[in-house]
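Technical annex B. To support the medicinal chemistry partners, we prepared a structural model of the target in complex with iron/sulfur cluster, based solely on the information shown next.
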Amino acid sequence: MVGIESASQVTSWLVTGRILFLIIHVLGIACFAYIVARRMVPLLRAERDFRFDHPWLRLGRVLKFWLGQWKQPRYKLAGTLHIFIFAGFIVLAVRAFSVLIVGVSENFVMPGLAGRAGPIYDIITDYAATIVFLCMVIAVIRRLVFKPVRYAVPARYGKAHTVDAIFLLSLIAILMVADSLFAAARAAAPSQPGQSVETLAAFSLPWMLQKAFVSTSSSLSLPTLGRLYFGAYLVHELTFYFLLCYRPFGIQFHVETSLFNIYFAKLDREILKPVRWGVADEHLDQVKSFGVKTFEDFTWKHMLDFYSCADCGRCSDNCPANAVGRPLSPRFIGIKARDYAFQHYPVIGRTDISHPQNRRPTIATALVGTIYSEDEIWSCTTCGACEAECPLLVEYIDKIVDLRRGMVDDGNVPQSLQKPLKALESRGNPYGKMEKKKADWANAKDFQQTCRVKTLDHGNGADTLYFVDSITSYDDRMQSIGRATAKILSHVGENFGILGAAERDSGHEVRRFGEETLFIALRDHNVDAIKASGVRRIVTADPHAYNALKHDYRDVPPVEHISQVIANEVKAGKIKFKSLDPENENNVYTYHDPCYLGRHNQVYDDPRDVLDAIPGLKRVEMTRSRDRSFCCGGGGLMLFYEPKEDQRMGVKRVQMAAEAGANVIVTACPFCMVNIEDAIKVAGLEGKMTAVDLAELVDQQISRESQTAA
Ligand code: SF4
Ligand code: SF4
């Protein structure tokens, strides 16, 4: 460097810069290593989690979700700001490293940056520092002036994190200013007479500072520039290490953990976590305690999730339970657990272990009843909106189901759910109805005149099994969906049948409710019955059954939802539609994505393609659709549970349909149908709005002329 002394050469307080900065480096790195080591303690005591498979796939996801910031643009302003900040940090990481080393070795140049690449890289970093600085200013203004609602912390969840956020944003801004200051001072120095000029990126923060230093009216002397350079360098070093060591105490810890969190994120989100990793279902009777009761019952990856949450509030912003005032906000499931970890596993001081003699030393405190309330954990519909939104791939459904497993294991089950659970155990359905009545929906005389549904037993075989499930079998209103489905299968010439009395509830809700043993019993019974039927394919009109058969069951034939079957048959020309009747011509239809068909299984286009194939049907999209669909409130045995809430989810959904200008809501799930029809009444929209299942609509609109002629 020309003009002013390097920071490593300056002598102050009787020590050279080299020694001073070496001490700062050693102390900073040692502090950081110690803090991170302490933060890892609970992870080492946590439950197992298998996340070491498919390294290339995981690396690809790191490139997409971490480096590519894939989910950030879902929130336009905040997402764009974050992308700029992240990109700036990545660019500045190399500069920060070389700047740190220059403090002890003045001639150090990063490998690859010694030649022409050096000045180009310097120009890029000048702009990066400027952009990050501006983003910090905008972020502070947003937090202080515009106060986005999703950052607010309701009183029941603790104190707002605004002060902490502003403090951290300010520290990063200081880091950028210090970085720019010493670059500007260094560049200003050679402009003294007879010395060469160092180039800074035009209109960048360092460039503007340099211009200020060398302007004719306030040209700074070389010693002053030297002091500025050294001071800025010292501030940069101290701020850098302070930030490094402060981040693991709050939300900024995600800067360090997010890469690992995304690498180890769950690859098969649709499959629920087992009760215990490494314990097969057959050996579950040897597991002493199910689910999560104490903090150490979480898996190490779930704890890493707690550390990695950036507190951006997107999960809660999209959570239907939160939207209708239920006592659940997924963001705080994570934040409360993280605060618990920080409190009970402090960086300084001893960890208060209540059971040091355990295989895994634990803190005895039960989480439900202390940091979580029972209602909070039962309020979740497992809709998956939170997980679909989180830019850091934080997982919630597994944690909530694990907490439920813990409560169920302790016999802690809401009163209203005890009866359906007993009925499921004794009768195989939550209504307690007789098994022999399971096929009654198919035995109505007028229906039998148009469609015969055979029950698959010893004498009757078929290619395809129509898996009906409990709600469609027993609920008078939903039986119409069953009949429509059977008529469609019959129309396309499918050789199909049902299991009748041999079919038990799919157990989908039971599993998500946390009753794993009952789920296994239901599943095993159904698997045996399906295998005995000899079918090669399964079709269902219930997305919950679809999800269970596809992901929770093993060794069963491939399963399709009826909307997929219809879409394929429309494409193949086997299903043709007639135009809407005159009384329906002016209807405006909207499609409501059921969570377990859409978000959990990505079936978005087939139902829409089917609707668009009906001549004359006008369809509009609700603002919240596809993977941002809003749950109707029916998942997770919610039909039998009345959570505390300000408004029903279904009512909110119906209002969204009305706002979109629709007067007919089409769905493809019997649970959605129950909730939406009910919500139409509660919202006072009877006569103005109706709901219809896709199978029912298709059955009404199928052109059967060719069949009649034949
Ligand atoms: S879990 Fe994800 S979406 Fe929710 S606040 Fe944390 S980082 Fe944001
Ligand atoms: S799964 Fe749905 S209801 Fe449950 S916390 Fe996530 S967004 Fe909320």
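Notes passed to the chemistry partners:
The CA atoms of residues 47 and 299 lie 4 Å apart.
The longest helix spans residues 117-146.
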